[in-house]
Amino acid sequence: MRDFTADHRWLSINTATVRKQRGQDWPLLQILDACAARGIRAVSPWRDQVHAAGLAATARAVKSHGFELSGYCRGGMFTYSSDAGRQAVRDDNRRALDEACELGAACLVLVVGGLPGALAGRPAHKDLAAARAQVAESVAALLTDARERGMPLAIEPLHPMYAADRACINTLEQALDLCDALDPGRSGAIGVAVDAYHVWWDPKLAQQIARAGRERLLALHVCDWLVPTTDLLEDRGMMGDGVIDLRGLRALVEAQGYAGYSEVEIFSAKNWWQRDGGEVLDTCIQRHRDCV
Amino acid sequence: MRDFTADHRWLSINTATVRKQRGQDWPLLQILDACAARGIRAVSPWRDQVHAAGLAATARAVKSHGFELSGYCRGGMFTYSSDAGRQAVRDDNRRALDEACELGAACLVLVVGGLPGALAGRPAHKDLAAARAQVAESVAALLTDARERGMPLAIEPLHPMYAADRACINTLEQALDLCDALDPGRSGAIGVAVDAYHVWWDPKLAQQIARAGRERLLALHVCDWLVPTTDLLEDRGMMGDGVIDLRGLRALVEAQGYAGYSEVEIFSAKNWWQRDGGEVLDTCIQRHRDCV
């Protein structure tokens, strides 16, 4: 297992972690400058932040700072309730792939979507199995595009509390079943993003990480689970402030040969998004060394 | 599959559903009167409500109204961080068993506990596997007491969002693994309580209900998952107001021979607990017929 205590060379910052500080959007190019100034070597930007900054300008900044992208957030949201919706999903995910390629991302992270319409509070139906079938079909189609571009797809199983509205793939086992169905040869074209927040509770965590193996482990995301947690979406904790055995999780993925970045992704409306962005980045560096 | 549309003979009311209306505790004996007045045939009371009303008085009321108890809520909270804690857990669960017997409950429902201390915001450690081992050991010990008394134990897997502080058994598969380890003969002494809210998201739901079979399916709890959900604990929805395919779930358990009650258990601080208790009960009856 790698020693993270001495430096932060394996730290990546998911840029949602500092996306809006004290009510103001922190522009992506400024976030990148602040990361580079701290010797952070990798980031994972969100699409809306990239679009706001401009894709070409972001690519230039990434190149000039010498950043690696531990992933690109995100494709997915595959479920639909009309033919037009289906085509829009397909087109949008192809664009996400192209952007990921332009930025040189290690993978395109997929948050697959829940019941169509649920995120807007108007679920079209209650058939979770049907939503899952749409996801499987959509990922299969996207995988063809992804193979052509040489861009790996990383399915991110989301915590079951997001099954209705954000992602109906909710366990590593379920994600890996889909990977195995679409890519039995374990080519590296499709795998999973293991996010501590989403999977830490799973009684089959160790077993499924071992099953995933090096070929399927495309990304590792960290934050922490607070007790109590006061909001389903925006109350994630800084590493060390909650109950997740982050070092134990990292040991599991590294035992399979994972040697990539540990990407910090924290949505925290009342705490970390209310602080100075530089302070948040400094804290991420320290906790990366002390707790991950 | 039974027809629920014509009457509410298979409705049970978990008394937490109307425990505190508009900020005032609704005393258990009054709840029982209100249920009886509506032709409700079964209830599932919580221990603290029974203690407040008195065990003997509750038993008399149950008998005089002719209620069945679809379950008794609840035993469990098995995890501890000291020898004294371990003994206190054991003693308390034996008392819960005795109370369940006195009241003639169909089963003692077990919410197994999470990381010790986490519910009070002070987790003693982050070792979820160790907590799970304590649970397994404690359930094994309690099963001996339960067999002596002829009181079935119903392990209730709780939604993974409660893994830290309320229950570290989070899937039906995990609960059934424990049942199989402790009772390979499927004697009926131990099984599961299937609560729609906790398990609806599970990609292995149908498979694990089939695995459970009639001998392990001891209780069915219903409410609904709202989109959005604004609180992790007290924002459960009334049946029909959310996204759970309740009739589909009931079809799965009834296909295995489950022929017991459908128990309504709703924690709803901002909606249903703010209404008149009689209105809530009337709504439960209507939704039981229309949506379950």
Description:
Two copies of one chain form a homodimer. With 292 residues, chain A is an alpha/beta fold. Chain A has a single domain, classed as Alpha-Beta Barrel (TIM Barrel), CATH 3.20.20.150. The first copy, chain A, has helices spanning 28-37, 47-53, 55-65, 83-103, 128-149, 172-182, 196-199, 205-216, 246-255, 277-291; strands at residues 11-14, 20-21, 24-25, 42-44, 68-69, 72-76, 108-111, 153-155, 190-195, 217-222, 262-264. In chain A, helix 6 links the parallel strand 8 (153-155) and strand 9 (190-195). In chain A, helix 6 runs parallel beside helix 8 (205-216) and helix 8 packs across helix 9 (246-255). The relative contact order of chain A is 0.15. Chain A binds chain B through residues 115, 118-119, 121, 123, 126-128, 132, 159-161, 163-165, 168, 170-171, 173-174, 200-203, 225, 227-230, 232, 242-245, and chain B through 115, 118-119, 121, 123, 126-128, 132, 159-161, 163-165, 168, 170-171, 173-174, 200-203, 225, 227-230, 232, 242-245.
